Request: fold
Amino acid sequence: MNHITITQILFLSTALFFIGVYGLLTRRNMITMLMAIELILNSVNINFVAFNKYLYPENLDGLFFTIFIIAIAAAEAAVAIAIIINIYRNHRSIDVEDNEEMKY
Amino acid sequence: MSTTKIFRAAIFLLFTLIGVAGLYFWMQVEFVAAVQIIVYVGGIVVLIIFSIFLTQQSGTEMAKPTMQRRIFSLIAVLCGAGLTGLLICQHTFPNNAADTMDDSVQNIGTQMLDYQDAGFALPFEVISILLLAAMIGAIVIALKSNAEES
Reply:
């Protein structure tokens, strides 16, 4: 079953991470930036599981880190979307360029 | 290069997350794969799609990013990806794949609620309090303007 090595999984998660970074840098819509952050968190999760499975199979620390990261990502998404909907009610726009009262 | 329709972006995110869950199934960590499908695909993507419906007029397209920002982001991302790829290529990992990981749900549950040295009881409790605080905070933030109006 193990024809695919850990190196290839790490390449996949690197690609996912930098696609997320590209989305975070180019997009100016808050919801799409949130989606990019989800991609980054997912690539980190893949890394944790792969390192745990291939390098340290005797304990389960990476698995627990993954589960905790998923829980924190859920909490973060819930709070972020509540804030975004509130901003939309006040400003009628969720573009980061239109929301700059706290900038100066 | 990237789609300007935000709803399509959400659907692509959905399939990416299902693909990551498939990768977990392939690595034989079925519990994490199940958690991934339930929490991400069943929860976060649905939340994102609902927030798109609430905040976006349907059919409107997002503005394309400026060419300058796209080029500089692409340069930064390619440099970072190249450096990481180079590091991964040069490093040789020890081969421990002979050992099998005991990731039965029973073992995960005992270790998560174990308060001895190898246990994760304290982070588990902290995460549960964080989740509770986040949910209450989300409800409070979303309700605030309604309370002010009435």
About this structure: The first helix of chain A runs from residue 6 to 26.
